Amino acid sequence: MTPFTTLSGVAAPLPITNIDTDKILAGRFLKTIKREGLGEALFDSMRRHPDGAPRADFVLNQPPYDHAVFIVALDNFGCGSSREHAPWALADFGVRCIVAPSFADIFANNCSKNGILPVVLTRAEIDWLIDRVSKPETAVLAVDLPEQTLQAGDRRFAFDIAPGAKKRLVEGLDEIGGTLRLLNRIEAFETGRQAEAYRFPSTSTAVLGLRRRPAG
Q1: How far is CA 137 from CA 10, 63, 94, in A?
Q2: What is the mean pLDDT of the chain?
Q3: What integer pLDDT is reported at residue 36 of this predicted model?
Q4: CA–CA gap between residue 123 and residue 210 (Å, rounded)
């Protein structure tokens, strides 16, 4: 992943509660394991008419929000199924931070594993932000992850984040990348374990009482 430290850019208001992962990326788009191109299908049922034509009234089809890197939404964002394709689609569109009063746990974990920062603020703070970013001339936010602050004009908000999720994002590491950082220690352990097994090949069976008894 690309390390996440600071981010500044356009924020799109999405004042809807309980936006589930099927709304974010419909099930018919889950046949691929490629992340590239999924941004085109993001919020498809909300962004497009049944014939595929864009809906002029949907925020991500309107400038400047069609280049949003933030989304400001309401409660329980990312509920529903645990599909990881949902944050893939958000990231491919260009969204790197979602601000809401609450997130579904699995979705929030998937976000931090895919370079997207979920920021939890109070409902009152979110309402203020939605009102501000609904005006194109003030629709810019800035976030500083190391400092755990979100800036909107002259107003600054502090937010909490789990240390593990913060570490993954700041260092740009998914779970595989984190494991590979420990590769030398893993290889040393495996080498030692195999050497021990070679020196004492019958130790484990003896301890477990599995030695074969003499016939008769």
Answers
A1: 10, 11, 20
A2: 89
A3: 87
A4: 62
Cβ atoms < 10 Å from Cβ of 81 = 17
Q: Provide Rg for the chain, Cα atoms.
A: 24
Taking 50 as the threshold, does the pLDDT of residue 62 lie above it? yes
3-state SS, residue 9:
strand
Cα 171 to the center of its chain, rounded Å = 14
Taking each continuous run of H as one helix and of E as one strand, the counts in the chain are 9, 7
97: three-class secondary structure by DSSP: strand
Which token pair is 176?
């595989």
The Cα 152–Cα 160 span in angstroms is 17
- C-alpha separations of 193 from 182, 186, 199 in Å: 17, 11, 10
Quick check: 66 and 93 in contact, CB under 8 A? Answer: no
Q: Per the omega criterion (within 30 degrees of 0), is the bond before 214 cis?
A: no
pLDDT for position 32? 79
Strand partners, 156: 151
The residues, any chain, with a CB within 8 Å of residue 149's CB and separated by 6 or more, are: 143, 156, 157, 158, 159
pTM greater than the 0.90 cutoff:
no
pLDDT band at 116 (very low <50, low <70, confident <90, very high): very high
Q: Is 108 helix (H, G, I), strand (E, B) or coil?
A: helix
CA distance 35 to 86: 10
